[in-house]
Amino acid sequence: MSVIAVRAMGVGKSCLLIALMLAVIVTGQSPDISNLDLTEKITPLGIAPSPQDGYGSGPNQLAQPDDVEFLADGSLLVSDVNNDRIQLFSPSGKFVSSITADDLGLSGEIAPTGIAKDGGGYIYVTLEEKGTIVRLNPDLTVDQFIGKPCDISEEDYYRSEYEDCLLKPQGLIVSPAGDVFVVDMAKKIFRKGKVYNFGFRKFRREGSSFRYDTEFAASQEVTQVMRKSEGMFIDDARRWLFIAEEKPLKNQFGNSAKYRYVALFDLDTGKFLERLLGVTMQNGSIVSGLIDDSVEGVRLFGNYLFAVDEKGGRVYVVQIQTGKLAGFFGKNAFYYCDDHSDCVIDGINYNEQNIIAGGAFPHLKNSWRKNELASPDGVAAVQLEDGSRRLAVVDQWNSRIVIYDLDQILALLTD
């Protein structure tokens, strides 16, 4: 089935070639895509931790994991947010070790969130509660910290004397050359009236150090176009930065139904390239979209974009050259509801509060083998030295990472 790309804001023919990701059918109504549902055809390789003990602080437990990244050998690093640690698992999901505040030379809460790596194998992790980014050597020892915690106003944030300051860094992506792009999600600082926004920094790598990129910051178009974002990815060859919108405004692009989209920015200047991906526009307004609640992690692998629909419990895959929706997999876990809901099943409430309290164990009820996902979040992909390829998806409230044979998924996709 062909998926139509949408031109946004008067962009010419090049937009038709670019705006293929997360694209939707022009009619504004969701088509029947059941023939592209790969959920029952895809069998995960396993999970991390393996064995798994659900939500908690033990070595085989996770507590609201947020992001995941592969190392060169297929091992996985996971930001275990509520446990204030970074967990390392073997390629088969076995627990290997933890990186805690003490290991980083810090104390107290650190809240590791976003994880990314550069072309040299260095790992970068946002430490939300410390207002900084830690750069780890390939052997996972500390190399340096990027950015420093500050207590400043939105007005001061972009002044030259505060250019190294971070408040609540979360989303993170790093170019192969080591340039760092970070979303600073301090909602009480970045707001206009009752509307929350975020700060955004680019740190350019210069040898072994990092410098705040003032040229990139000059436009500030990222924070003008986007309201709340975390998921990002980079097309280094084309010098494009893609940022996913989690909570758009109704008056932004006439988006009355608040469809989620991915916006395209220039990687070097930060300027908005006037292209929105994943929505249909008519007369300058967004009229339909593929994801209507929350798009979280995004990852480009080859010609395919993997985009995580958190509330839908799905991962969509789009062929970016032809513009076709190539397939999707995953389904909402039955034994789970978010912190704003109640879902009592057999006398047990499977909402987030009860999971945290130890009153519900969704990981025992929802089957990872059947791709039953409870609020999926981050996503990672890698090609290993032997040529095989892997995909990992954070299954947040099942307290695990689901590991896939990416070769199997790619073989099932419809071009």
Termini separation (Å)? Answer: 9 Å
Strand content is 35-45%
Strand order of the largest sheet: 1-34-33-32
**Structural class of the secondary structure composition?**
mainly beta
* Count of strand segments: 34
Sheet with the most strands, sense and barrel status: 4 strands, antiparallel
- Tell me the number of helical segments per DSSP (H or I, 4 or more residues long): 7
Multimeric state of these chains? single chain
Radius of gyration: 20 Å
Q: So what's the overall shape?
A: globular
Unreliably modeled segments: 1-28
Percentage of residues in helical conformation: under 10%
pLDDT averaged over residues: 89
Provide tags for this entry.
single chain; 415 residues; mainly beta; four-stranded antiparallel beta sheet; 7 helices; globular
